[in-house]
């Protein structure tokens, strides 16, 4: 996936300025596809030049004017073509897993604080996902197709974090047992 595709999806969900788009990446899409603010602005300029998006100047009182981007017909066509392309299963590069295996050749206790730090980070993200789910997808709410697909992706993130936390708990149990 290219950053362009993630931007097209985000702009189809809701048109916005470069700043607003960068904030969306910080809050949600960034968990699946990361990009710096500079990368986002650079790609927006290229996408506008290629006719994938169109910008409307919005005059603001007391602040500089801003450009609000929306997906153009060519952008929808590009996204439609991309959607139909096969996606290869992702390979995982997991440095922490390699370190855990390496602990067999050193002191397993040396990894306990690092694994604990990772667990805390995943637990915080899980809590953020759950809070967002309660806020954006209350039980019994009627969801349109866009919201249903957003929710299924969020549920996948929740399950991934739950699985990762359970695995890290198992790793910690094993490290503690081997350290005794």
UniProtKB/TrEMBL annotation:
The Transcription regulator PadR C-terminal domain covers which part of the protein? Answer: 92-175
Family annotation (SUPFAM superfamilies): Winged helix' DNA-binding domain
What protein does this entry describe?
DNA-binding PadR family transcriptional regulator
Q: Which UniProt keywords apply?
A: DNA-binding
What would you give as a GO molecular function for this chain, any one?
DNA binding
> From which source organism is this entry?
Kitasatospora gansuensis
Q: One Pfam family, short name please?
A: PadR
Record has Plastid as a keyword: no
* Annotated ranges, domain Transcription regulator PadR N-terminal: 7-80
């Amino acid at each position: 996936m290219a950053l362009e595709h993630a931007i097209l999806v985000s702009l189809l969900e809701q048109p916005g300025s470069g700043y607003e788009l960068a904030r969306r990446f910080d809050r949600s899409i960034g968990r699946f596809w990361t990009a710096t603010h500079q990368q986002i602005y650079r790609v927006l300029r290229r996408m506008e030049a290629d006719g994938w998006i169109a910008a409307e100047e919005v005059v603001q009182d007391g602040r500089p004017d801003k450009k609000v981007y929306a997906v153009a017909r060519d952008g929808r066509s590009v996204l439609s073509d991309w959607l139909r392309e096969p996606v290869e299963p992702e390979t995982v590069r997991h440095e922490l897993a390699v370190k855990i295996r390496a602990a067999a050749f050193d002191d397993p206790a040396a990894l306990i604080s690092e694994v604990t730090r990772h667990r805390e980070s995943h637990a915080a993200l899980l809590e953020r996902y759950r809070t967002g789910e309660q806020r954006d997808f209350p039980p019994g709410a009627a969801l349109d197709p866009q919201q249903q697909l957003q929710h299924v992706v969020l549920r996948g993130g929740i399950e991934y974090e739950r699985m990762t936390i359970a695995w890290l708990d198992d790793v910690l149990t094993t490290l503690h047992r081997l350290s005794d």
